[in-house]
Amino acid sequence: MKYVRKTKAPKFFKVDTQHLKDWGKYKSKKKRDLKLHILRNEQYFLCIYCEGKVSMKNSHIEHLRPKDVNKYPGRLFEYKNLTVSCNGDCQDFCLDDQPHTCGHVKANLYDEQLFLNPTELEDIEAYFIYDSDDGRILPSEKDPNRAMYMIYTVLKLNEPQLCMARKIALKTLQNKLSTFPKEKRKDILKTILRKESIAFISFLRYRYRKII
Questions:
Q1: Where are the domains of the chain?
Q2: With a threshold of 0.90, does the pTM exceed it?
Q3: Is the four-CA dihedral 138, 144, 150, 153 of positive or negative sign?
Q4: Tens of pLDDT, residues 146-187
């Protein structure tokens, strides 16, 4: 997981939602406009949770704090609470069409003491480490309880398809680097890892942390 800086709420969102109190009344076309804005300007077409590449078709608007007006009054249309998650099947390794990870699996799970909010914690990457051999995300020593809550209880971030996707992302990067002269690879790698739009970028940065 990586930090995502929220921008100011776009004017069209404020206009479209100023009198709404029910998420179901928010028109589908308006939701698509909002989702596209978030993906383009804040998340660079990556899932807010797993960092897998997403499109408009295989993602949904995600409420970080759930759509529960009893628990979180005023959060339903709060822009900083709205992100975009994959549908839990974006890696195409699943044998069914059921959500396995991220927002749809999370549903209404939200513990204020344990949830690591990727739009609020600028150092959120420090809560996790990775195993580059099998692609798993693991808790660091920073706060293992909160990291484990996110990985295993809320988001299921070590499902086989996600681990496989991380390994593929690493192999793809390594193959790309191999096409350049050896003396240029280090600088090219640093340039690539500065980008925010690469799938599983936190995993790749961790793998090459001694270089960058």
A1: 11-207
A2: yes
A3: positive
A4: 999 999 999 999 999 999 999 999 999 999 999 999 999 999
